[in-house]
Amino acid sequence: MGLKVLTVDDSRVMREMLLMALTGAGFEVVQAEDGQHGLEVLPGAAPDVIITDINMPRMDGFGFIEGVRRTERYRGTPILVLSTEFDAAKKTRAREAGATGWIVKPFDAEKLVAAVNRVAA
Amino acid sequence: MDPMESIKATFFQECDELLGDMEQSLLALEAGEGDSDTINAVFRAVHSVKGGAGAFGFEKLVGFAHVFETTLDAMRSGTLDVTPDGLKVLLRASDVLNDLVQNAKGQGAVDESRVATLKEELEAMVGGGEADDAPEEDWGFKPITLEIGAAAPTSEWTLRFKLTAKMFANGHEAHLLLNELARLGPNEVCLDASELPDFETIDPEGAYFSWTVKLPAETAEADIRDVFDFVGDESIISLAREGGELEAPAPPASAEIIDVQALIRQAKAATPDASELKLAAEGAKEAATGNKDSGVERAAQAGATIRVDLDRVDNLINLVGELVINQAMLAQSVEDSGITRSPNVVNRLQEFEHLTREIQDCVMAIRAQPVKSVFQRMPRLVREIAASTGKQVRLVTDGEATEVDKTVIERISDPITHMLRNAVDHGLESTEERIAAGKPAEGVVRLAAFHRSGRIVIEVSDDGKGINRKRVKEIAVNKGLIAPEVDLSDDEVDNLIFLPGFSTATVVSNISGRGVGMDVVKRSIQALGGRIAISSIPGKGSTFTMSLPLTLAVLDGMVVMGGDQTFVAPLTAIVETLKPKQGDIRNLGPKGAVIAVRGGYVPLIDVGVALGWRTHAIDPTQGVILLVESEIGGRAALLVDAIQGQRQVVIKSLEANYQKVDAVAAATILGDGRVALILDIDEIIASKLRDVQPARMLEAS
Fold this sequence. Notes:
The structure holds two protein chains of two kinds. By secondary structure, chain A is of the alpha/beta class.
């Protein structure tokens, strides 16, 4: 069984692209539509790696990352931020919240998979 | 389909939804109804379009979305005020964004100058053009090349690094970094555990180790630093070549730390909803770890909608159709068997029928969609027509939540578009005329939808000058559509505009005058089993009312007998039914007959003969006449043996199950199990009109 990845993105297109890239690499994928939804599916999904967007309705990526880190079981789960934004303040804020890494959209499937493999314990 | 193509299709679908919602939000803001969430939603919509567009390489779209997004970002962060003028620019920008999306789709051209103008306007709002900032790959680390004079390229690298507790907490692992480094070439790792405290004082989550790694000389410094780009530069204590001086911590990294603190404070200050965010996160955490009840409740909130393939729904509708037929057959069998005297059987049967109908309604409701998806495209249309006619127009929409079957939704867009064009172009007066008539300069066009007696009604009304009846009649006479001496009621005059080839505009304008008149609108509505009517008050305005069936899967029909066969005639096509008197029938030679109806003659068609079930027409006085009207306005009298009654029937396509049969639109199965053909009224009339003496039409008795 491959790695289990939770993807959190409000864009259906992004979710599908992630699905294609990740399942293509043999990963199992669970999807969520925003931060709030991500926290809801987290216990059932039991992911090895999490990939999240930042700008989302209901709960954004920062709130989601903080929520994950407050959940005992997922305190050390690698979280990659996947966002179109790239300014240093946002990245720092994500790191403060507990993000493991940052990937800028649009992403390259191979690089994304490499990044997932790289952070997966 | 190629997976990328299918995702692209999803992207465009998502774009259409986002753009629709965005326009709604902007209009709400313009009406003073929005709040900070509304502008946030607009921002996210543009942001999502940009993200997807980037993935597919739609550069023009990305470029424009980026500028648009920057302006919106300034608005949502409060550095730019949301003004009425600003909203006008945003609305026009959303139109341009829509154009660019359509263009990316391969539909329609883009007015480059308009794109450029809007870009400038958007940039002007945030105060001049912004600096070009190219995306970086990751955490923002920029490798720096250090000139270390003493270091020969042949000496190997010595790297020292340490992970902080925070880094471990963020999901980083030392062994993963060591694995990565191992990939760069054969290396030697040395663990420094000297900082490890006593067992009693150790913090299980503390970080106490550092590592020293020797790497091959040919390794590029950038490759080594790349390993640490997620962790952050701070983790590197030193990196230098053997024999060279140990390099101090990378200067940009330490500089960043100081800067970072300031930035964090800045970011926190700029986000007033930080505490809200925390609350939301707390709540969500509760759900994540919490009890079943709240989980279920939240799931209900989150999963308010599901997406299902249309095929599956269609299949379900089909099966429910079978169920309805089966139920009717069962009821008939039970009745025939004579056991209906048992009250239990009767009650259960009634209950069964009731449940079946309810299931049918529910399944139909699955395919039902609010007309919002069509309505929300209209404000833009009206804005554009208003701009090109120089009129001031306000569009008011009502009943957007009214639901109708998906198949109907797809086909009402064009008629509505045309009626709105007509309302603005022909219905409303010019601004000067309005003022002269003592009306407000701004004309109002109203688009409304509501349900009435099992049908959906869509109304397009304007507060313009109303129909000029004298002029309409003149044109109809001039074009030979009516005789000059005909005396028509106001209503009849108004409805002349639906006649083929009628156009009231003295000058063909470039808006309504696209070669389609109201006759085309009427025909497309009739093709859906609908009707359209107009009412008009001179000086006050006109209202177009169209009523459509809620679905195209079932049909209200008249069940009739003809030549020992059962047929269904669509109710919408039937004008009236009558018992003919001998004196009304005129035989036209041996091969045809006409019947006098309300002063005019219409061809008489024996349905049994027309479809080939018998060779001789029956005596008309022994049968019943259905006076029918085709979509193009042709009339005919269909002669049938008897009328059995009015019924809602489930449409079964003949093409799908057998093949296309002339004069037959579809089939259905009746309660007693008989198959009945649904008559294609248009084709029957057309074939009758084409062939004045059809071979099948033999001598009337």
